[in-house]
Amino acid sequence: MLKYAIMPYNDAYKNKLYSQFYNAATYYANQGKYKHAITYFKKALKHFKEAQTYYQLGIVYEKLNQDKDAEACWIKAVEINPNFPEPMSKLGVFYLSQDKPKTAITYFKKILKLLPTNSATYNNIGLAYRDNKKFETAIRCFKKSIEFDKNDTEAHYNLGLIYEYRGNYNMAKVYFEKALKRNPYLGPALSIYTNLMFQTCDWNKLNKVEKRINNLTLEQHKSNILISEAPFVNILRTQDQQLNLIVAKSRSEEIKTSIAGNIKPYLFTKTKSQKRLKIGYLSSDFCNHATAFLIANLFSTHNKKKFESFVYSYSPNDNGLYIKKIKAEADHFVDISTYSHIEAANKIYSDKIDILVDLKGHTRNTRLEILALKPSPIQVSWLGYPGTTGADFIDYIITDKIVTPPSYQKYYTEKFAYLPTCYQINDNKREIANIQYSRDEWGLPRNAFVFCCFNQNSKINKETFTSWVKILKKTPNSILWLYRSNKFAEVNLKKEAKKAGIKPERLIFADSLENSKHLARIRLSDLALDTFTYNGHTTTSDCLWAGVPVVTLQGNHFASRVASSILTAAGLPELITKSQKEYENLAIELATNPKKLAAIHKSLILNHKSCPLFDTQEFVRNLERIYEKMYQTYTCDDKPRPIK
């Protein structure tokens, strides 16, 4: 009878088994066979509770987007070895991604005690302080990172971001240029730098920068990798809707991937019986912001018997008129500014929201991650972003047939939900201050013809300004009154005017003003001139509400057709042009034909109470019909389809 030797389970044998399992796990991880890797890492841990093994297991969970499991492994690794910087770094980056900068900072500080000259950690801790709104501390950290590594491209880029965010565009340019010098195709830096050129009307550099970002965007698309260009920058600079869609889809896929594995899918109960629909509105702009100016009267106008409104706000609490009004008139106001994406989604789900309406899209401070978690059975894009989000987790976009004709559906991932008139809501109770301003108060010549454009300076591209120069040359006793977004744009626009043969003093700039007073100020203008690729949105309806006509050029994508939609709903389609030449000729004709302009002024004022643009009550009724159709489609188990 054969006898088998039984190996004693001593430290040597444990080490041997541990090594075999650990090596097998590492092999499978390197092969991308992560489930096998997990099995063998766990077998290795049965023999030795090694910090390194927990760290590597956490990385495998990270690859599978099982973030909670990864977090637990890295915490265990640090518990076993408190002097192990790698899992500390992973935890810090993880907590940053979860909008928990304070927790992230504690781990980064632990690393600095171990590695006081580590450039990457100073960069990461700078990001944490930036996310915690401690900008001066963040700047010091990024500069410290550069001190220890002069070629730290990320730190240069992050400094550029902070300076851009704070409006110090000259310093922002310096650091973006340094980052791009070290890496000419650093996509995120190139995207923000391009936007900066638009913001400052720096067209000389813009031409070269646009060529570079265009090439990079197309190359990244061909290579099937994440596109660096921001969707907002893309729609600002080009009306190529296919490219707009490609860029938006890439960003939405990135957002979706970033939260994958954080939560199990939510389950919803369909109710076909009559019920009060719960509508959630999500935004950071329920404050002194253009979106609030438009939407302020929505909540009091909603049919309270059929609809229950929930406002999910991560707006700054400026304690102003608009946030107070919205808090008072919405059925529920929930401040989610301190919630993580998952916490916010859980709150929305627990409130049993039927339709969640995002008012941000791909704009600054967006939180599309919340929608990517799909906390509501029906999700909608509206008002804040003039284009497709490219997101398969958003079902509809509320729109109209002028900004998005049916033929544009192929460029949108969302189904069109058509309002019968303009997609833009307006508040027909919006106050215009009872002030009779004089032109002297604003530095305007008393007897000049005043063209105005209060759009953000970033919307003024070279083509638009070329037309404005031609208009000014044909109307010698005229000036152009512009909004001062920043001092750098003002300097550059005056330089461009001088170069084109227009005296710089014919361009007059106005600062920001409380909205009711701004509306009263607009009345000093004779005629508003719209921008081309990205029209005025709220600024267009501002002018019409104040009684000032607007001339626009209709373009080929949503952002360039908004003013056409607004003017049509205001009963002024004759102010819509189809070419630059027609735009220039119409502006010149109205400036030199006082009777014709006076008739349009009069028509605009008389139509205030009857035109669809300013009929808030009818707009809300139509919006509610759309909501009902969306829910009816959902309860019938139908997929989202266009709503007419």
Fold and architecture overview:
The chain is of the alpha/beta class and 644 residues long. The protein is 51% helix and 9% strand. The chain is built from 27 helices and 13 strands.
Percentage of β-strand residues = 5-15%
Counted beta strands: 13
Count of individual helical segments: 27
User: Are there runs of 5+ residues with pLDDT below 50, and where?
Assistant: 1-9
Mean pLDDT: 94
* CATH homologous superfamily grouping of the domain at 439-614: Glycogen Phosphorylase B
CATH architecture of the domain at 439-614: 3-Layer(aba) Sandwich
Helical coverage, percent range: 40-55%
Q: In what order do the strands lie side by side in the largest sheet?
A: 3-2-1-4-5-6-7
CA-based gyration radius: 28 Å
What structural class do helix, strand and pairing data support?
alpha/beta
Give the CA-CA distance, first to last residue: 86 Å
- The fold-level CATH name of the domain at 439-614 is Rossmann fold
Shape: globular
Under CATH at level 1, the class of the domain at 439-614 stands as Alpha Beta
Sheet with the most strands, sense and barrel status: 7 strands, parallel
Summarize the structure.
This protein is of the alpha/beta class.
What attributes characterize this protein structure?
six-stranded parallel β-sheet, Rossmann fold, single chain, alpha/beta, disordered N terminus
Would you spell out the secondary-structure blueprint of this structure?
Elements: H1 11-30, H2 34-47, H3 51-63, H4 67-80, H5 85-97, H6 101-114, H7 119-131, H8 135-148, H9 153-165, H10 169-182, H11 187-199, H12 203-222, H13 231-237, H14 241-259, E1 277-283, H15 290-295, H16 298-301, E2 307-313, H17 321-329, E3 332-335, H18 341-350, E4 355-358, H19 368-372, E5 378-381, E6 396-399, E7 415-418, E8 449-453, H20 462-474, E9 478-483, H21 487-499, E10 507-510, H22 515-522, E11 527-529, H23 538-545, E12 550-553, H24 562-569, E13 576-577, H25 580-592, H26 594-606, H27 616-635
Parallel strand pairs: 1-2, 1-4, 2-3, 4-5, 5-6, 6-7, 8-9, 8-11, 9-10, 11-12, 12-13
Helix pairs in contact: 1-2, 2-3, 3-4, 4-5, 5-6, 5-7, 6-7, 7-8, 7-9, 8-9, 9-10, 9-11, 10-11, 11-12, 20-25
